[in-house]
Write a structure and sequence with these properties.
26% strand; disordered C terminus; 499 residues; alpha+beta; eight-stranded mixed β-sheet
């Protein structure tokens, strides 16, 4: 019996598989497609996604291939959010076609021993107290796979979700847009136009070529057919006044604003992640990124559950923490879809006003940027009244003694306890790595002086996914050790060491 079967070898399934392998979990990924899809709906890797890659030491190939853009857009407004001041080692949007993101993640998954079965389609499942029986159509006929858990990363039409009986409520598409990868003889560096005729965005792709995304007022609410190349060029010309020397398209597609979310991300031994759990208008390209974040949240929890070392309720916390993130994702993309597909004078005036606020009100622009970058996600603590305000938020790449910064310390997939104190001596919290819980790394770090919210924090417990599980204050080292011991014991049952 496999530990875990994952349905879907897209970016989310591959990243989850690699996360599980970090802990020695046996993983089989089944994928319907005989080959990876050469076309790329998703194009952007956001700062938080790059941080998660860096926490496993695999960010290098992505940074080498992608185009760094120090900004992002909200609802295709001409005024862009400035990412350059974000509190992250990666203050930019990385433009990288999904096909390359998937290929790099597949290479990483293979390197850590993930088993991938192509031309294997999940057609049904049955759960019992001990595991899941997965019915699969394979090239040589029907077969079954037996696993302790099954995770559906198989997209918006998820067979796993349907077979598990998980509802997927929401709304069908009411507006549509188009996208294409094209060759331009007169390309702009980047371009956004919105007027009474419609909207067009043009931006460069790595290796040449451009992505054109838009919709026109005459057809935005008409059930779509994929435009021909000549129709695409005519629409761009009508809206922008130029076709930018467009002479060929390698791919043209249409998409809508259908918006749905799974009612449960866990049903017994079946879990959902990525587009199997949420679908939405792709405003700003959050879908792939939120899916990767789902996988980062789930991987270590599922591994600890399989090892029998998880605190009570840990696997249930996957739904508790990630479902609200999906709710916010749908709220944001719905709002942006409304702005991006309405061309009344009132809607255009609203766009102008929001653009001015982004340009002129730094706090507004920063708040939007932090959300778009994926840095704003914070999971509510069990006892908010007793917890430090930073509990549940993502840990920045703090300076630490020895390796330089925090993220490299997370490569082993273990909890990291930081003692923030002057000097570089052995941390007084070091005994916790041995006499309370194995699988805990303790490191010293200088006090955080450049982040006001960290004032007074003298210890911090960082989860394997880079979120803060606990923060301690006070300078009495004996009292801090006692408090930290209690926090660690409540958080980590017996954390498994990574393989």
């Amino acid at each position: 019996m496999q530990d875990v079967v994952i349905a879907g070898a897209g970016p989310v399934g591959l990243w989850l598989a690699a996360e599980l392998r970090l802990y020695g979990v046996g993983v089989t990924v089944v994928e319907t497609r005989p080959e990876p899809d050469p076309y790329s709906r998703a194009l952007t890797v956001h700062p938080r996604s790059l941080e998660l890659l860096a926490c496993r030491g695999v960010e290098g190939p992505f940074l080498a291939e992608g185009l760094r853009v120090p900004s992002g857009h909200f609802a295709a407004l001409t005024s862009r959010m400035d990412f350059s001041g974000l509190d992250s080692p990666f203050p930019f949007t990385l433009v990288l076609p999904q096909a390359r993101t998937e290929a790099l993640l597949a290479e990483h998954a293979r390197s850590v021993g993930v088993r991938l079965l192509r031309e294997h389609r999940v057609v049904g499942l049955a759960q019992d107290d001990d595991g899941v029986t997965v019915d699969v159509e394979a090239p040589n006929g029907p077969r079954t796979l037996r696993a302790a858990y099954l995770v559906g990363c198989d997209g918006t039409r998820s067979t796993v979700r349907t077979a598990a009986g998980i509802d997927f409520p929401g709304t069908d598409a009411t507006v549509w847009a188009w996208m294409a990868d094209v060759v331009l003889d007169e390309p702009p560096r980047s371009h956004t136009t919105t007027n009474r005729h419609g909207a067009v965005m043009v931006f460069p792709l790595p290796g040449g070529g451009h992505r054109v995304v838009g919709n026109d007022a005459d057809s935005v609410r008409t059930t779509p057919t994929r435009p021909t190349f000549e129709e695409l060029r005519a629409r761009v010309l009508r809206i922008t006044g130029t076709d930018f020397g467009m002479r060929e398209a390698s791919w043209i597609s249409v998409f809508g604003n259908a918006t749905r979310q799974a009612e449960q991300y866990r049903q017994g031994r079946v879990l959902l992640a990525g587009n199997a759990a949420h679908m939405h208008f792709p405003s700003g390209g959050p879908g792939l990124n939120v899916g990767l974040h789902d996988a980062s949240n789930l991987g270590w929890k599922l591994a600890q559950t399989l090892a029998g070392t998880a605190p009570a309720g840990l696997l249930d916390s996957y739904h508790t923490e990630r479902h609200p993130v999906g709710v916010e994702l749908l709220r944001s993309t719905r709002a942006q879809a409304g702005l991006m597909t309405t061309y009344t004078p009132e809607a255009l005036a609203l766009r102008d006003l929001l653009g001015e606020l982004i340009t002129e009100v730094g706090e507004f622009s920063t708040a939007l940027a932090v959300r778009a970058a994926g840095l704003a996600t914070a999971y509510p603590p069990a006892d908010p009244a007793a917890a430090h305000p930073l509990t549940g938020s993502r840990a920045p790449d703090l300076v630490v003694n020895g390796p330089g910064t925090l993220f490299p310390l997370l490569r082993r997939g273990r909890y990291v306890l930081l003692e923030l104190a002057p000097g570089s001596g052995s941390p007084s919290l070091a005994p916790l790595a041995h006499d309370v819980r194995p699988g805990l790394d303790v490191h010293g770090a200088p006090p955080v002086e450049d982040r006001p919210h960290w004032s007074g924090v003298t210890a911090a417990l960082v989860r394997p996914d880079g979120h803060l599980a606990w923060l301690g204050t006070g300078t009495d080292r004996t009292a801090l050790l006692a408090t930290a011991r209690e926090a660690v014991a409540a958080t980590i049952a017996t954390a498994p060491a990574a393989a």
